[in-house]
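TASK: fixed-backbone design
INPUT:
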């Protein structure tokens, strides 16, 4: 006989009762409620933020969570009060091409903004009195500069990466950009002398560690403590590599997005492939070779259905976690898509898709729990609010959509979502 499990609503009611009698702390109550699957199933569009005149390539929240910042093909950066939908400030970024990333530096009263773009430039915008904005060039890449990574809790330090394979460290106190290294393929690949980097992210629990990834199968981890600021040593050697075993040696895949969880888990999304979650003990080490135990575990590159879930049949029985957790169902072929976590303790994984939908999976187990229509074409960016169950998304359309758990009815997962997505993608081609 199957044991009955409590629904999300039942759990929420019990949590409210515990909170009222003092058996659950305010913080734990808020975290448990915000992670409720019931809230995920009630996410709906609160409003659309409409002012850009081109694809919106980047959205993010400030540290307080009351402001959304966006950047677009129209080369503008806009700060929004997302709760009212009003524009707080709009200005030209100073870039000559599509803005790919715009972020507010923490502890700057939301007055210091860093950006990178398709023109290869890395710039800072300083918001002065009366809404006046001054922008200046900080660094440059040869080719497009896709991403920035801000050192946690630092108002001064951030990193950049670009299609020239270059990773730079920038200190706003000195306005200097230090070229750390140029990332190159692990082994010879056709037509590729440097890696075109699409993503960079910093581990929030170990901020001296950062990850980069791009046009090959590996995510590389670097330790900034190993860099000699006098330039006396070569800093181009990663301290660890991550890759699903069956993709090692696959020249047809690349990585479009990375994210670290608050627990130092590494989330990686591949083009023409799936999304994988690695724990820090799943690395291949500083020299990813076929002798790696993780590589050998892949059974010569062919994965069974159980391997796709991140474990062998024996591992499932014992509860061991050998391989990375897999998230599937979306499509990542047409654009450079990000990937992210959602929930106060990163309980969910979120991604956009070529079919114009947002996909949400349970982090643990990889079950798909929600699919939401979010763009007529492609969804590229999904960002989580820093404190509550709110999402911001953007894509090919020129608006930003704000999602809150306001729906009266709980959403039902379509049974034929894969077929529906395939049909929509075919009609777009």
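OUTPUT:
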């Amino acid at each position: 006989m199957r044991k009955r499990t409590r629904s999300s609503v039942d759990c929420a009611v019990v949590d409210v009762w515990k909170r009222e009698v003092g058996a659950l702390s305010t913080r734990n109550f808020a975290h448990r409620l915000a992670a409720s699957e019931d809230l995920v199933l009630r996410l709906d569009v609160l409003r659309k933020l409409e002012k850009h005149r081109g694809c919106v390539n980047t959205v993010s929240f400030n540290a307080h969570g009351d402001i959304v910042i966006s950047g677009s093909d129209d080369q503008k950066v806009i700060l929004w009060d997302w709760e009212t939908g009003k524009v707080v400030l709009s200005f030209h970024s100073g870039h000559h091409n599509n803005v790919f990333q715009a972020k507010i530096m923490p502890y700057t009263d939301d007055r210091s903004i860093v950006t990178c773009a398709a023109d290869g430039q890395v710039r800072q915008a300083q918001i002065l009195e009366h809404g006046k904005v001054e922008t200046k060039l900080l660094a440059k890449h040869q080719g497009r500069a896709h991403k920035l990574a801000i050192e946690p809790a630092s108002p001064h330090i951030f990193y950049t990466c670009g299609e020239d394979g270059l990773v730079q460290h920038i200190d706003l106190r000195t306005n200097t950009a230090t070229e750390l290294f140029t990332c190159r393929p692990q082994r010879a690949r056709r037509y590729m002398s440097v890696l075109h980097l699409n993503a960079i992210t910093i581990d929030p629990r170990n901020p001296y560690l950062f990850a980069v990834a791009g046009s090959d199968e590996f995510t590389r981890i670097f330790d900034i403590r190993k860099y000699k600021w006098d330039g006396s040593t070569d800093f181009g050697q990663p301290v660890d590599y991550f890759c699903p075993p069956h993709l090692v040696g696959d020249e047809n895949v690349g990585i479009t997005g990375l994210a670290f969880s608050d627990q130092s888990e590494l989330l990686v999304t591949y083009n023409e492939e799936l999304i994988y979650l690695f724990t820090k003990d799943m690395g291949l080490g500083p020299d990813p070779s076929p002798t790696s135990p993780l590589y050998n575990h892949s059974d010569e590159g062919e994965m069974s259905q159980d391997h796709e879930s991140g474990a062998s049949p024996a591992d499932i029985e014992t509860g061991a976690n050998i391989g990375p957790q897999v998230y599937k169902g979306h499509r990542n072929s047409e654009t450079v898509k990000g990937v992210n976590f959602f929930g106060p303790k990163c309980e969910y994984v979120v991604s956009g898709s070529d079919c114009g939908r947002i996909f949400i999976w349970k982090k643990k187990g990889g079950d798909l729990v929600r699919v939401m229509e979010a763009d007529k074409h492609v969804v590229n960016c999904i960002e989580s609010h820093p404190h509550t169950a709110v999402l911001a998304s953007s894509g090919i359309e020129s608006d930003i959509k704000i999602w809150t758990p306001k729906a009266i009815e709980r959403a039902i997962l379509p049974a034929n979502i894969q077929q529906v997505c395939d049909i929509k993608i075919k009609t777009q081609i």
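COMMENT: The chain is about 10% helix and 40% strand.
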